């Protein structure tokens, strides 16, 4: 019994509950995928227990204070995909969608390339951004990047084959029919993530050039900044839109398409932009001042941004979901550019951005990479992006906003002020905080359902699945030592999709 209890600690027990719920919903159409998910969980559990065995010394420099997290990191994204398959199978049986298939050989080739790329990417992440992530967090980031951009590459290859081959084998796009917004976001993110590798090469050339002409450090920094901004503009305005127009039929240049999309409903969308800018401006100035002159803990200060996300995103998601999709992509692109500027200390903004961002960091961030704002934005955006093709559970769209903006915030604030009973002797999470998070999130979900029904959504959620999803997500927040902004929204979203 003691061995079993040590094997299934709090985090692993919650993961088992999460996976059991998914497997229970699996029908014959996704039976093999569900069994593969169970096998993956068992293998990940074996690896995690061996990695955390006493006396085990790892050469990997992972984030201090975080557990290994292999099991949670390995199964989270595959569990999301299986949940989406169950949801799509339900839609197929109801005649609401049509499923597209791929040749088995293409599937095998894609899986092989996916596995090879995943090994290389996780090695690069752990060794380049050492002490910035646990193994589980690196696994989640790796699987997400490989799946997302593997899909992009497959889409490109399919479009090339479609243009070169006249047969009907490759006439359809890879997997799904993409909207213009999803193509814009995918291309922009890929270009910005690829940009640092290309810029690093250009910096070496500029370094040899400046050495040859004996330029002082001031001129070198200005020249390097000029190279950065010119090359970034070339990538964003020239190269990325070329790919977008290649794989998607745009009536005009993608940048002009974005301008036309925003001004197609100028009153609603520009009003939202003004609302967002006003909230962000006031919040940033206020919270930055508090962080400099107050003794309020940073973990609580950051929860105000979670509440800010609720005020910003809930109205937009109800009344302007497509515009919110595009806005999330634009915000993520801005975050990536600012982080690149901060890491490379690009003149004249690099030091200013670094000083500002470090005012809101905690033990999960480092000087090498600050991830908290990325995880908050992606935690809210991913459930919305993943529901863009088919979704018969409208509450799933709000999974990230509810769990981060309401549940996580209330759990931290109540637990910090009133918490007495701790879940473990070494942890800070309290039972009172967890209960407050679960209760508040359940109340917010039940309050949101009538509003969704009144705005035209077909509400299909029932009591027990909702209570189970909220409870499991709340318990995971209590037990996990991983970056909860990244994992909990995906777990909550997966359970809501069922």
UniProtKB/TrEMBL annotation:
It is a multi-pass membrane protein. InterPro entries: Polypren_kinase (IPR032974). Its EC number is 2.7.1.108. GO terms for biological process: dolichyl monophosphate biosynthetic process. It comes from the Eukaryota. Keywords: Endoplasmic reticulum, Kinase, Membrane, Transferase, Transmembrane, Transmembrane helix. The keyword Membrane applies. GO terms for molecular function: dolichol kinase activity. One of its GO terms (cellular component) is endoplasmic reticulum membrane. Its main location: endoplasmic reticulum. The keyword Kinase applies. The chain crosses the membrane at residues 29-47, 68-86, 101-122, 129-149, 184-206, 226-247, 267-288, 300-320, 326-347, 368-388, 394-414, 435-457. It is found in: Endoplasmic reticulum membrane. Belongs to the polyprenol kinase family. This is dolichol kinase.
């Amino acid at each position: 019994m003691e061995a079993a209890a040590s094997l299934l600690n709090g985090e692993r027990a919650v993961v088992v509950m999460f996976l059991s719920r998914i497997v229970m919903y699996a029908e014959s159409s996704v039976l093999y995928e569900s069994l593969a998910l169970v096998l993956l969980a068992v293998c990940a559990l074996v690896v995690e227990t061996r990695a955390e065995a006493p006396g085990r010394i790892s050469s990997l420099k992972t984030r201090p204070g975080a557990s290994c997290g292999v099991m949670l990191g390995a199964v989270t994204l595959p569990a999301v995909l299986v949940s989406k398959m169950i949801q799509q199978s339900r839609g197929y049986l109801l005649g609401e969608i049509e499923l597209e298939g791929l040749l088995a050989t293409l599937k095998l080739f894609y899986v092989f390339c996916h596995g090879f790329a995943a090994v290389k990417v996780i090695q690069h992440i752990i060794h380049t951004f050492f002490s910035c992530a646990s193994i589980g967090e690196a696994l989640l980031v790796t699987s997400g990047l490989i799946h997302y951009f593997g899909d992009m590459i497959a889409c490109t290859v399919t479009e090339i084959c479609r243009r070169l081959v006249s047969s009907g084998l490759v006439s359809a796009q890879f997997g799904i029919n993409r909207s213009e917004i999803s193509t814009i976001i995918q291309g922009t993110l890929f270009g910005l993530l690829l940009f640092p590798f290309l810029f690093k090469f250009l910096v070496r050339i500029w370094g040899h050039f400046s050495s040859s002409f004996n330029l002082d450090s001031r001129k070198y920094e200005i020249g390097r900044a000029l190279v950065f901004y010119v090359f970034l503009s070339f990538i964003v305005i020239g190269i990325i839109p070329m790919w977008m127009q290649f794989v998607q039929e745009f009536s005009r240049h993608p940048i002009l398409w974005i301008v036309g999309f925003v001004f197609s409903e100028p009153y609603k969308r520009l009003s939202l932009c003004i609302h967002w800018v006003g909230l962000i401006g006031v919040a940033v100035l206020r919270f930055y001042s508090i962080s400099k002159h107050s003794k309020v803990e940073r973990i609580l200060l950051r929860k105000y941004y979670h509440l800010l996300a609720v005020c910003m995103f809930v109205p937009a998601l109800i009344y302007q979901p497509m515009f919110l999709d595009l806005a999330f992509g634009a915000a993520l692109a801005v975050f990536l550019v600012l982080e690149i500027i901060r890491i490379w200390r690009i003149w004249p903004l690099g030091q200013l951005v670094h000083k500002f961002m470090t005012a809101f960091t905690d033990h999960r961030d480092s000087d090498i990479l600050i991830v908290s704002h990325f995880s908050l934005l992606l935690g809210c955006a991913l459930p919305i992006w993943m529901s863009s093709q088919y979704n018969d559970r409208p509450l799933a769209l709000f999974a990230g906003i509810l769990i981060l903006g309401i549940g996580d915030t209330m759990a931290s604030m109540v637990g910090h002020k009133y918490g007495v009973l701790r879940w473990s002797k070494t942890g800070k999470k309290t039972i009172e905080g967890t209960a407050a998070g679960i209760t508040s999130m359940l109340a917010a979900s039940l309050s949101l359902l009538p509003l969704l029904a009144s705005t035209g959504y077909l509400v299909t959620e029932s009591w027990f699945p909702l209570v189970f999803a909220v409870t499991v997500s709340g318990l995971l927040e209590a037990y996990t030592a991983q970056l909860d902004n990244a994992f909990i929204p995906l777990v909550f979203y997966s359970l809501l999709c069922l």
